[in-house]
From TrEMBL:
Its main location: membrane. The chain crosses the membrane at residues 6-26, 47-68, 80-99, 127-144, 164-187, 194-219, 239-261, 282-306, 318-341, 381-401, 413-431, 438-457, 463-484. InterPro entries: Na/Glc_symporter_sf, Na/solute_symporter, Sodium:Solute_Symporter. Belongs to the sodium:solute symporter (SSF) (TC 2.A.21) family. It is found in: Cell membrane. It catalyses: L-proline(in) + Na(+)(in) = L-proline(out) + Na(+)(out). This is Sodium:solute symporter family protein. Pfam families: SSF. The keyword Oxidoreductase does not apply. The keyword Lyase does not apply. CDD domains: SLC5sbd.
Length: 500
């Protein structure tokens, strides 16, 4: 694929510079909100719920929906639309079911800042809080996926070497998150979510001149895909991850559970009042629908335009460059770059907030010889969180230098590990009176460890099925332990009622 040249590169350069100035300005503006741990992690009440909702969708989308999943559509055809169905269907339903209860519990617990803290207070367990923090470190691989997606765009479209693309992406993100914390992340991602929705609509409209067929454009697209390979229009493609009815059900289960990812669920903690949940969920659902559906169609169209790409992850950049005039393509490419950053910054914020809030604030009082005041402990926790940005950034940079075979599969491995561990403690923590700390800890360890073993040892090749079975195992273990330790459950329920 040829790199854009001449004045178009200047357009991209100017737009990127303007975007970077914007996010640094937002970071500077948000610095006043990030002096406390609550402000750094959530910026609670400082951002409009409509913007927080768009930020949720942008964070959800990331490089996975803009690069990785369209790449899978390029490879495996229309069977990948099952993933899209889960994104705007199952995930949004999950958000509607979980958001209100999670917000109410968080508020009544005294205003928690992170998912590990929420679980720690729900089960009255510092051990669980710390364990969830360590599990969240699997998001390092998720960040690596974002870095790779960004560097792929830089390399494919602009001609910047992959190595320097990684360095640029990591450096920019940690700088403005370090400055403005959650405020910078929410505002910048909200704007990016709106831009991503516009880009997705333009991709859909472009089918009328790239694929043709008038109002029958989707029929024409199907015909052209079938001519390349009949498997590309099959609802189940045995060559890919959507290779059975059970696998498709597992995908829906995964995406229903995906809203429980810490960097997404934390958005709910940014809302000040319960009334803000309504505009938040409407905004999140609308933007997510546009982003998740239309970019995958772009991946299918790219297969028709360029059926022999060396890397499927190049599908969307190529399609945009082929479908639009150079200047419009340049603007859309910058939109994709900002889209990738929108998830990266949330992940950095989620990981480092947990390091400061759920690791340092829990461990420091135990190890410190002198008793720390709450204010001093909080100030130190913020410094630890911001300092860990550099450490985590360097770690992800190092891992990113070895480009993975599939961007989408790497990202899905990371979040499936986390979901396998936290799903049972969160869900049963809502609905089951016998849920207790022992069962939650056992479920966390069972689900996460089993998923890693099943996937790394190739015991189950399909990552979606591996997550489904691992999560079920977590539920079974937690229920058994809850039944065996009913006295502990009763004591915790008394404590919970006192808290609420």
């Amino acid at each position: 694929m040829e790199v854009l040249s001449g004045y178009v590169l200047w357009v991209i350069g100017i737009l990127l510079l303007a975007y970077f100035v914007f996010v640094f300005w937002i970071g500077k503006k948000g610095s006043k909100h990030s002096k406390s741990m609550v402000g750094f992690a959530t910026a609670r009440g400082s951002v409009s719920p409509w913007i927080v909702g768009a930020s949720f969708a942008a964070t959800y989308a990331s490089a996975n929906l803009f690069i990785g999943v369209p790449g899978l559509a390029y490879q495996y055809g229309t069977s990948v639309l099952w993933y899209t169905l889960g994104c705007f269907g199952a995930s949004w339903i999950g958000l509607l079911l979980f958001a209100k209860t999670f917000w109410r519990y968080g508020k009544k617990f005294g205003g928690v800042s992170t998912l590990p803290e929420w679980l720690g207070k729900r089960y009255n367990s510092r051990v669980l809080q710390v364990l969830v923090t360590f599990l969240i470190l699997f998001n390092v691989y998720y960040i690596v996926g974002q870095n790779v997606g960004l560097a792929t765009i830089f390399e494919t479209v602009i001609g910047i070497p992959y190595f320097w693309g990684i360095i640029i992406g990591v450096s920019i993100t940690i700088l403005y998150i370090g400055l403005g914390g959650a405020f910078a992340q929410l505002v910048s991602d909200g704007v990016q979510g709106i831009l991503m929705a516009i880009t997705s609509v333009l991709v859909l409209i472009s089918l009328f001149w790239t694929i043709g067929g008038g109002l029958n454009v989707f029929g024409t697209l199907s015909t052209k895909l079938e001519a390349l390979d009949p498997a590309l229009i099959s609802p189940i493609n045995t060559a890919g991850p959507y290779n059975s009815v059970l696998a498709i059900m597992a995908v829906q289960f995964l995406l229903f559970s995906f809203v429980l990812m810490p960097h997404l669920l934390n958005k709910v903690l940014s809302l000040e009042t319960e009334e803000q949940l309504r505009p938040f969920t409407i905004s999140a659902g609308l933007v997510l629908f546009l982003i998740s559906t239309l970019m995958v169609i772009g991946g299918l169209a790219a297969r028709v335009l360029a059926p022999a790409l060396s890397s499927a992850d190049q599908a969307i950049p190529l399609y945009i460059m082929e479908a639009f005039p150079p200047v419009i393509a340049a603007i859309m490419i910058v939109g994709i770059i900002s889209a990738i950053l929108s998830s990266t910054d949330s992940l950095y914020l989620g990981v480092t907030s947990s390091i400061g809030n759920d690791l340092y604030k829990v461990v420091a009082p135990i190890l410190s010889k002198n008793k720390l005041s709450e204010d001093e402990l909080d100030r130190r926790a913020v410094k630890v969180a911001k300092g860990s940005l550099v450490v985590v950034g360097l770690l992800t940079l190092y891992i990113s230098l070895d480009r993975p075979d599939s961007l989408s599969l790497l990202i899905q491995f990371s979040y499936s590990t986390i979901i396998s561990g936290v799903l049972a403690p969160i869900v049963l923590g809502y609905f089951w009176k016998k849920a207790n700390r022992y069962g939650a800890i056992a479920a966390l360890l069972t689900g996460a460890i089993l998923y890693v073993v099943l996937t790394t040892q190739n015991l189950i090749a399909n990552i979606y099925l591996a997550m489904l079975f691992s999560s079920i195992a977590g539920f079974i273990v937690m229920i058994i332990i809850g039944l065996l330790t009913s006295e502990e459950s009763a004591r915790q329920n008394v404590l919970l009622k006192d808290t609420l």
